[in-house]
Amino acid sequence: MSRSILHPARVVAGVAALALGLSACGSGATDTPSTADTPQVDVVASTDVWGAVAKAVGGNFVQVESIIDSPTQDPHGYEATPQDAATVGGAQLIVMNGGGYDAFMTGLVDASATTAPVVDAVEASGLEGAAEAAAGDPAHGAENATGDDHGHAEGDGHGHDDGHGHDDGHDHGAFNEHVWYSLPTVQRVAEDVGRHLAEIDPAHADYYATNARTVGSGVSQLTSKATDLGRAHTGARVAVTEPVPDYLLETAGIENVTPPQFSAAVEEGTDPPAAVVAQTLDLFRTDPPVDALVLNSQTESASTDQVRAAAEEAGVPVVEMSETLPDGVDDYMRWMNVQLDELGAALQR
User: Fold this and answer.
1) Which residue from 251, 260, 200, 196 is spatially nearest to 228, judged by alpha carbons?
2) What per-residue confidence (pLDDT) applies to 72?
3) What span, in angstroms and rounded, lies between the C-alpha atoms of 143 and 157?
4) Tens of pLDDT, residues 26-48
5) Integer Cα distance of 8 and 70 in angstroms
6) Considering the entire predicted model, what is its pTM?
7) In this structure, what DSSP letter does residue 61 have?
8) What parts of the chain have a pLDDT lower than 50?
9) Which residues lie closer than 8 Å to 184 by C-beta, 6 or more apart?
10) If 156 and its partner were Cys, which of 31, 160, 306, 330 is the partner (CB 3.0–4.6 Å)?
11) So what's the architecture of 24-219 in CATH?
12) Residue 238 and residue 256: Cα distance in Å, rounded?
């Protein structure tokens, strides 16, 4: 069984709330005009999440291009193109997730022989197990930039199946690589981006430092909002389809009671054992059931469909969280703010 990406219409559900005006927590980049004779620093990010963070720091003095910039693209199985190779080769600063999540980027960086600094979010995170995850990040993906076949299994060139089967050579169970949901990691990445931009473009060093501090302030607000949410719902229990939002749930102090075998299997694109599926479904059938289901909005499988159906039948709210920015959203802080609002509304119910 494979995971399959959802239609964009499913992904953007709830994001219209952005237009209604959110609480502060915007990116807050200082609005300094860029003139025609002021060159912009070329920044390349593996995903638009990290691209948004880089843009928040670099503001008007950077040109950010994200390789993954659509909710219909999956970083785990993305096929790098010759254009991607050229883009990475021309970058002055590279920002990636690391930890095997965006292995295509590791391959592109290695193949390009670039001397540009690389900000690796997993390395920057300081999270337990991050160093080992970064050291074990597989450098495959370069073959896709040249079209050469180096003997990978049939599928997408990485040993994946035809959907999101994540047989990409790294063990998701050893480290949760979805570090953009780790708010302290986002702040550390912003600081690293600001430092490198100042080295590349020292004329605007103060501007980058100010913007990095603004990102830090936004992260502090989000952290306070998450912890307040947890305090307002002491003892809240949720189920998840994948470990994507786990860092945010931990910040909020909200317990994830999903059997680990279930979320790990869904992430790897395999069928959870029947007994594990039954245990997960029981979370919605017991009295009381879990308070909410947090579902990865960009993937679906027979198992996640079963869990969603069980939640809806039990009247348990479903909160969708994603791996990349929804269509029409380009601000990390506002995106995360919306997701916390939706989680809070679900727990309030």
Assistant:
1) 251
2) 85
3) 8
4) 555 555 555 555 789 999 999 99
5) 9
6) 0.82
7) G
8) 1-24, 139-173
9) 125, 126, 219, 223
10) 160
11) 3-Layer(aba) Sandwich (3.40)
12) 5
130, 123 in Cβ contact below 8 A? yes
Output phi, psi for 189, to 5 deg.
Answer: -65, -45
CATH class of the structural domain 223-348: alpha beta
Q: Where are the domains of the chain?
A: 24-219, 223-348
Give pairs for 301-304: CB < 8 Å, separation 24+.
301/1, 301/2, 301/3, 301/4, 301/266, 301/269, 302/1, 302/271, 303/1, 303/241, 303/262, 303/265, 303/266, 303/271, 303/272, 303/277, 304/3, 304/241, 304/266
Using DSSP bridges, classify how beta strands 237-240 and 318-321 pair: parallel, antiparallel or unpaired: unpaired
Dump pLDDT digits (tens) for 249-275: 999 999 999 999 999 999 988 999 999
Instruction: Give one DSSP letter per residue of 216-280, joined into a string.
Output: HHHHHHHHHHHHHHHHHTTT-EEEESSSTTHHHHHHHT-EE-S-HHHHHHHHHT-PPPHHHHHHH
The CA-based angle 72-73-74, given to 5 degrees, is: 120
- Close Cβ partners of 163 (under 8 Å, ≥ 6 residues apart): 2, 3, 4, 5, 269
Alpha-carbon distance 148 to 107, whole Å?
13
